[in-house]
């Protein structure tokens, strides 16, 4: 290739790289590890997140390797634990993630990621904001919008027919959360669970998605998202994208400006 063409090609490559970088609003880290009951969702969720990333102009790293938490987390606008609880991280990786949150990092916790052994990593339990006990079998119920002003509810009806495992939770550390979605226990049987377990419902106050502040960062939690087909559902993906958007930017709440850091 003549020198002039080489120079032109290099310039075009740099311009393209610069445009791509400029168009990317943020980077999202997604940890999605296969488990006994959660594995078929992985390629489906990756494909859907890739489409969301293209649509909303962000980058994402999708991995099943916790070793990514050994590296520089500050490059990410948020870290998503997708059906993968924090217990998968070793002590050094946990410390690195805690430091990331103390520095203003943000987190998204999805479904199975909210379940962690009691007293195994108390800081992470507090980050989730609730502790999950025995949970009902997957059933169809009515999800209710509690906070219409929060981005993860935009596009959802006030009462939304959805099929999932509606986790029953407790609050052993008295963490204050802001409920986004609840579930109407009259619309399903909250005592119908796996053999060998027993549970009672939570009554009218049964949060299944929420947000709060942790350290200097924002945390969005949704306990919805049990099986793979859910990650093809436009309303569920809109719910998830709303949580990602708020966690990364602190923006989007109706009637509010950027969320203040604690």
UniProtKB/TrEMBL annotation:
Q: What is the top-level taxon of the source organism?
A: Bacteria
Tell me the InterPro entries matching this sequence.
Answer: Class_I_gatase-like, ThuA-like
Which keywords belong to this entry? Answer: Signal
Q: Which stretches make up the ThuA-like domain?
A: 29-247
Q: What is the annotated signal peptide range for this record? A: 1-22
PANTHER family associated with the record: GALACTOSE-BINDING DOMAIN-LIKE SUPERFAMILY PROTEIN, SECRETED GLYCOSYL HYDROLASE
Protein name, entry field: ThuA domain-containing protein
Q: Which organism is it from?
A: Pseudoduganella lutea
